[in-house]
Amino acid sequence: MAHLTMMELDTLRHFIGEERLAVEKLNLYVQNCRDPELRNHLQHLANECNNNVQKLLGFLG
Fold first, then answer.
1. Please, are residues 29 and 42 in contact by the beta-carbon 8 Å criterion?
2. Which InterPro entries does the protein's record reference (predicted)?
3. Could you write out the DSSP letters of every residue in 26-43?
4. Model's pTM, two decimal places?
């Protein structure tokens, strides 16, 4: 792992938190969506955000 400054670490934590929040909201939208096409799109977005979380966590080691 590269050494991160405190500012970089705080920024990374912020981005991870935002992506996790997006995943939670999108999953809630998926559960309440009745349109199959929109539901698939929302699920795809939730998966992308979850992948982003995993990538960002990779910077932490």
1. yes
2. Ferritin-like
3. HHHHHHH---HHHHHHHH
4. 0.89
